[in-house]
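User: Let's play a game. I give you a shape written as tokens, and you guess the letters that built it. Ready? Here's round one.
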């Protein structure tokens, strides 16, 4: 029991999924953009017992009922309803650096270039970097979107070129509010590009009731007809751009291109877009028909993302855009990845963020992550940083980002005593990229979240419905996070999976499902298990690029147990290798498969490939098939397909 969950500014319309065990599952999507409260069955009625309820502050009550029969079916239907997940460029799965400290510093460009050099010197792989908004601060310290502080960053083009030369892409933080002293504020106000204040709006629409759909914004704005809303935003009063006005969206796209993309910035970080406007009765253009802000508040974040996406598409046609957004609503997955917002550096945040991320996945936001190490608060202690990175490497968005009060920015080398452990975890992330990339393809094509609670895959197992910090990373990996200080042993429940069982990733031993194991969790690793019958493709262990990943793939194969029921059943991995950046490769690429079949007490290995006709040539030369040390059955046959064109090697050795 507990109070209702209330959804305020920036919160999306809620999706409520319910499982009835053997009776199936259903979901209810409340399609309202107003502030709302949802009671998850905590209210008691004397006649009907506990019941759930939903209440929106204003507007119509529209909702969709999504039938299962399983929760995964509800998630898939909701994702289909609200839009296909954007397949990002593969390099976005690499480590993305960020901190407010660099761009807030008076010598921002020097510090940013020093960080790039430090990563190279320490051999820390880095694929992208997210510039916080300090690069756009005025002489008075106020954030002015689409401007550059020439004192901090004297050569933005040179900065972007230096990062590009190192194979690192830059994204820049942008905000949808112009402070009143912004150099373009007056021009935007004169063009009526901001959300309108309620008083002026009422005067402009005198005699026209809100339901009439009267055109609100005149083609030639005047002081009597329009004035922008003004509310506190960061450092001063400002006005929010009205993305329901096509002219405002066009202005935004032009500035994204001119101020960022043409300077070599690759991506946009759409931030502070909750539209927490104090004027509850502010009015929006509504594409020519006025509408109160409170009815469409989160729509602005979605349209902001769409405008940024369109600018990036126009600038680099044929390439997959990379965008990040802090807020949005159902449908945002068509344009951006998101994260759980500004978190605080403490142990409980690791657990809170994990559960938030799993909830986002069930709600159709598949490309998500968290600020590893904590955004606000003190720098993370050494043990906390290691555990946070070890957990973060499984999330699609893997970013170490911080604004540490009175301390150094969080980095992979923050604590010299554990820097090697952090680096090992980051390198493991790069090894996982072929597998993670295949999960994002499945998210797009099959509407399946890459990260999900264990019950998502094993609904029939009642034990999986108990609260747990364990989660599935795709169908193959059971991740047992270590989220408490000093924990060096971890109880892990292995879901029942039809007798297939589970393999210990580190030790290579097989265990049956339905059991609870107590596994070692030394600081250099967390417990990780693989489902029998699955295979995991990995990049070269020393790969420093998320885009190519080397010339070989290691496929960790986890065979089915020696049970007559599994005789002739294959453990198989299918994945796609492509250029990782182009639109053309989204539906194409080299399709590779590896299978290991148990038959008559021995194993039979096969591999195949489908080579498309394209300008891109797959650089792979070798596939290394690796069996667990605990697998004792002999490999009787190795059968590469005639068109494989790759060397197929089978053996047993530790994970790279």
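Assistant: Ready! My guess for every position:
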């Amino acid at each position: 029991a507990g109070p209702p969950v209330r959804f305020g500014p920036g919160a999306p319309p809620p999706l409520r999924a319910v499982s009835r065990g053997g009776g199936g599952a259903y979901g209810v999507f409340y399609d309202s953009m107003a502030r709302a409260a949802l009671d998850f069955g905590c209210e008691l009625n004397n006649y009907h017992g506990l019941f759930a309820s939903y209440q929106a502050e204003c507007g119509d009550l529209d909702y969709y009922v999504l039938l299962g029969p399983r929760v995964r079916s509800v998630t898939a239907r909701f994702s289909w309803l609200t839009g296909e997940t954007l397949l990002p460029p593969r390099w976005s799965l690499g480590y993305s650096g960020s901190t407010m400290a660099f761009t807030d510093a008076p010598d921002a460009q020097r510090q940013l270039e020093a960080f790039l050099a430090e990563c190279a010197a320490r051999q820390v792989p880095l694929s992208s970097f997210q510039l916080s908004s300090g690069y756009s601060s005025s002489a008075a310290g106020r954030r002015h979107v689409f401007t550059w502080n020439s004192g901090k960053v004297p050569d933005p083009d040179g900065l972007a070129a230096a990062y590009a030369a190192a194979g690192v892409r830059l994204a820049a933080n942008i905000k949808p509010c112009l402070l009143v002293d912004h150099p373009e504020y007056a021009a935007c106000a004169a063009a009526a590009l901001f959300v309108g204040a309620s008083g002026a709006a009422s005067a402009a629409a005198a005699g026209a009731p809100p339901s009439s759909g009267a055109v609100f914004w005149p083609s030639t704005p005047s002081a009597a007809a329009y004035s922008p809303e003004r509310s506190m935003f960061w450092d001063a009063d400002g006005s929010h751009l009205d993305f329901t006005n096509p002219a405002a969206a066009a202005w935004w796209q032009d500035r994204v291109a001119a101020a960022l993309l043409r300077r070599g910035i690759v991506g946009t970080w759409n931030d502070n877009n909750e539209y927490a406007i104090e004027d509850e009765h502010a009015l929006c253009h509504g594409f020519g028909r006025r509408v109160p802000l409170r009815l469409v508040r989160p729509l602005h974040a979605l349209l902001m993302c769409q405008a940024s996406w369109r600018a990036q598409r126009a600038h680099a046609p044929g390439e997959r855009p990379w965008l990040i957004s802090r807020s949005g609503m159902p449908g945002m997955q068509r344009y951006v990845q998101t994260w759980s917002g500004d978190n605080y550096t403490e142990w409980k945040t690791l657990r809170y963020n994990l559960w938030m991320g799993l909830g986002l996945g069930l709600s159709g936001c598949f490309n998500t992550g968290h600020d590893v190490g904590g955004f606000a608060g003190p720098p993370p202690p050494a043990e906390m940083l290691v555990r946070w990175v070890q957990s973060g490497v499984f999330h699609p968005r893997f970013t170490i980002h911080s604004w540490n009060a009175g301390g150094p920015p969080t980095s992979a080398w923050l604590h010299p005593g554990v820097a090697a452990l952090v680096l090992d975890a980051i390198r493991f992330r790069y090894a996982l990229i072929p597998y993670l990339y295949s999960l994002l393809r499945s998210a797009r094509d099959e509407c399946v979240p890459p990260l999900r609670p264990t019950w998502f895959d094993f609904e029939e197992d009642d034990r999986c419905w108990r609260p747990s910090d364990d989660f599935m990373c795709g169908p193959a990996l059971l991740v047992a996070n270590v989220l408490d200080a000093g924990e060096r042993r971890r109880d892990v429940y292995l879901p029942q999976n039809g007798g297939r069982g589970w393999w210990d990733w580190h030790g290579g031993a097989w265990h049956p499902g339905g059991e609870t194991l107590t596994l070692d969790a030394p600081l250099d690793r967390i417990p990780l298990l693989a489902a029998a019958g699955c295979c995991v493709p990995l990049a070269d262990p020393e790969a420093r690029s998320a885009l190519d990943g080397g010339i070989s793939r290691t496929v960790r194969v986890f065979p089915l147990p020696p049970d007559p029921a599994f005789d002739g059943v294959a453990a198989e991995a299918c994945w796609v290798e492509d250029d990782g950046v182009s639109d053309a490769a989204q539906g194409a690429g080299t399709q590779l498969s590896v299978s290991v079949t148990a038959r008559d007490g021995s194993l039979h290995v096969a591999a195949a490939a489908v080579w498309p006709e394209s300008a891109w040539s797959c650089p792979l030369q070798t596939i290394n098939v690796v069996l667990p040390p605990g697998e004792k059955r002999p490999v009787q046959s190795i059968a590469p397909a005639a068109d494989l064109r790759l060397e197929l090697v089978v053996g047993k050795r530790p994970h790279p």
